[in-house]
Amino acid sequence: MCGIVGGSSKRNVLPILVEGLKRLEYRGYDSAGVAFTANKKITQVKTVGRVADLESQLKKSDESNNGIAHTRWATHGVPNTKNAHPHSSLNEIFVVHNGIIENHEPLRNNLIAEGYKFISDTDTEVITHLINYYKNAGHDFDSAVIRAIKDLKGAYALGIIDVNNPDFVIGAREHSPLVVGEGIDENFIASDVMALSQVTNKFKFLEDGQIAIISNDNIEILGKNGAPKNIATQEIDSTAYTNDLAGYSHFMEKEIFEQPTAVSNSIEGRVLESGPQEGIFGAGFEEALVDISNIQIVACGTSYHAGRIFEYWSHKFLGINCRVDYGSEYQYQEPIKTQKTLLVTISQSGETADTLASLRFAKKTDNPITLTICNVANSSMCRESDYTMLTNAGPEIGVASTKAFVTQLSCLSLLLLTLMKINNKPENSIKKISKALMDLPKNIQQTLEDLEPYKKVAKLIFNKNSALFLGRGMYFPIAREGALKLKEISYIHAEAYPAGELKHGPLALIDKNMPVLAVVPDNEHLDKILSNIQEVAARKGRVFSIGPISKTEITKEGGHINIPKTLDLLNPIISIVPMQLISYYTAIYKGTDVDKPRNLAKSVTVE
Ligand code: M6R
C-alpha cells in the first residue's frame, strides 16, 4: 500500500519522480522519500508527511538522471524519517519497497550476525542489507538482487539503485503490483500506470517473480532464475489517468458528482431495453455458466458491500445460492469442494491483497469459474481471472470509494440480467430491469440537484461521537456502506444494524445524542422499518431517513430525504448517494482531510 516510482533518463528525473509520487499518494501518505545518483554518490531526502513536503525539501540545484522514490503507508515501524523509504545499506544500495516481508526477523538476525547494523524498525531494511551482502559475496548488482529475493517470503514491489551502477534502476515484484513505463531516452518503474501517465503511454506489466533492469536506453526483464523474459508492451490511454480536481474542492466530491456518467460508462453498449448483450463478460461466458449451482463472492470494504447486495438479488431473482466473504477471511477457511461455482471477485483496484489471495486460493482448492468486476484494466485480478468486466468508473482518487461502488453495482446488475437470461427467467422481467438500469444515471443525477438536505443533516451530526445506520434486506448493506463512509472520513464512530436487530441490544444506545440514519425502502419492509424508527423516536433518538417514499417528515426531530423511485432492486444504488454526501459534508464541517483520511490508503496491497 505504499507507492513506488523509479526512473532512468537523459534529462533530470527528479521532477518526474516527485510528480509520480503525487499521483501515488492515494496508496499511502505517512512519509515520503527519494534517493538519486549524482556525482558518484547517492543522495537521499526523506520526510514525514506528504509528497509536497518532500518537494519543498529538494534543493533547486538537485539534479539526477537516476533515482527511486516512495510514499509510505506504515506497516512495520511508526511514520518517522528513520522508517521512511528509501532504506540504504552502507550508503551503497538503496531500496524502496511496497509490501511486507514476512520472514524479516530471521533475515535480520542473520544479517546482524554478519555485522550489518539496522537503523529502522522496518522489514524493508533487510532487503537492502541482503543485496549488499550478496554483492560483497561476489555477485553483480543484478545477480545480487536475484539472489537476495530468493530469500524473501511475503509480498514486495521493489525499486533498487546501487552507487556503483549509477545508470540502472532495478525493479522486482512478488504479490505487489509493478509496471515498467517505456519512454524515449528514459524508462521507468512504478506501482501503477497513473504514476507515469505524464511521461509515457507504453507499459509492460511485470508478473510475480520477475525483475526489470532499466537504464535510459534499455529494458531487460528477467524471470526468477535470471532467464530473459519477453513481455509485450501495451499502449494505455493515458488521458484516462488524470488527477485533476476540475474545479471541485476534493476528489471525493468530484467522484460523487461523476457518478451519473460513471454508471452510463459502465452500462453503455452492454445493455439494451431488450436485455443484456452477449459476450459482455468475455467470449464463452454464457456457455460456461450454464448449470452453475453456486456463486461465491469475495471482496473487501466497499466492494464487499456491493457483493452483499448481489447476494439478495441472486436469491430473489435467480434462486442460486450465493455466499459473500471478506477476502481476509475466505482465504483462510477450510477449502470446500463445490459443484460448478462461479467465483466473483469485486475490487476497485484489482490489487487488494486479501481479495487477490482469495482468488488464488479458490483457483487452487476448488477450481471455480472466475470472474472479476474491477476498475483497473491489467490489474492482477483482471489478469488472473477467466472473465473480466471493467466497471469503467475512471480513476478514483479519494480514499473513500463512491463511484467505484455504484459502478460495481451496475456491473452486478448486468451479471444478474445475464444469469437470468441463461436460466430462462421471464423475458418481461429481464426487459423491465434492463430499462430501469438504463435510467439509473438519470435517477442518480436527480439526487445531486439539491444539496441542502444533505448539508442540513451533516450540520446536525458533525459534532456527535457516534451514529447508527439502519436498513433491512438489500438495504442493510447500504446502511453498512453509509456507516463505513461516515466513519472513514469524519472519524465519527458509525455502526450499521439490520433494523429488526435494534431491540436485541443497540436500542440501549439511543438517546438524544445518537443520530440514526435509516434507509427506508418502498417494499414489503416499509411498515416494519417505520415501526423501528418509531421505537427510536420514542426514546428521543434523532432519526434521518432516506428512501423513495413521499413521506415528508418521519420524525419531527430529524427529517426525511426523498430519492427517485425505480425498481426496488435498483433503489439501493440510488440511496447510497445521499449517504455519501452526508458523510462528505460532515467531514467538511469537522475539518478532516476528506481525500486522505488518517491511517488509510486507497489500495490495500498488504494482508
Ligand atoms: O480496491 P478494492 O475495491 O479491492 O478495495 C477494497 C477496500 O479497501 C475499499 O473498498 C475500501 O473499503 C474503501 N476505500 C472504503 O471507502
TrEMBL record:
Keywords: Aminotransferase, Cytoplasm, Glutamine amidotransferase, Repeat, Transferase. Residues 285-425, 457-597 form the SIS domain. Transmembrane segments: none annotated. Pfam families: GATase_6, SIS. The active site is at C2, K602. It catalyses: D-fructose 6-phosphate + L-glutamine = D-glucosamine 6-phosphate + L-glutamate. Its EC number is 2.6.1.16. Residues 59-84 are annotated as: Disordered. GO terms for cellular component: cytosol. The keyword Cytoplasm applies. Catalyzes the first step in hexosamine metabolism, converting fructose-6P into glucosamine-6P using glutamine as a nitrogen source. This is Glutamine--fructose-6-phosphate aminotransferase [isomerizing]. It comes from SAR86 cluster bacterium. The gene is glmS.
